[in-house]
Amino acid sequence: MKQVSAYILYDNNNHVLLMHRTSNAPTHPDCWGLFGGKIERGETPEMAVKREAQEELGINLRNVRLFKTYKQEDQYGKQIRHVFTGPLNFSLAELRANQNEGQNLNLFSLDDLNNIKISKNDLVIIKDVIKNKGIEDAKQAEAKEEAKEEKMEIRMTNQEIANMPEFQDW
Hints:
By secondary structure, this protein is α+β, with helices and mostly antiparallel strands. About 35% of the residues lie in helices and about 25% in strands. The protein has one domain (about 1-135): Nucleoside Triphosphate Pyrophosphohydrolase (Alpha-Beta Complex). The chain has helices spanning about 45-55, 90-100, 120-130, 135-160; strands spanning about 1-10, 15-20, 30-35, 35-40, 65-75, 75-85, 105-110. A four-stranded mixed beta sheet has the order 4-1-6-5, sandwiched between helices. It has a three-stranded antiparallel beta sheet with strand order 3-2-7, with helices on both faces. About 25% of the residues are buried.
């Protein structure tokens, strides 16, 4: 069974970034859909999603986390999809300038998804992410990571203070 990694990046308003596939795409031509692709031999799902982001948009993904793994089937066959979520830390202009796959990209709200051509499987995933707070969970994970980094900086600062000669006798 084919395994793929996909990613959902979102902005501060919980709009999700989607790619408009070309009319000659091998699957779901001329539809809006998730970014991502096939996991290559020797890759983990996380390695694959980061490689795909670099290939498709020229970006290095940071602060993405695995939301869920789906087993799906459609007219193109069966697949296992590892879906990652994370914050969108790039402007649309920058992403469009570096876009190497698809004919366009854009941000969509949950309501917008009813007015675009999108595969049923992608729609199920996006609704699941929003419904089950995958976006919020990823935001919280990012905040925890930032807090951990700040704590490390503070801890290092306190350690440096403790090593100062005037505090040696304390």
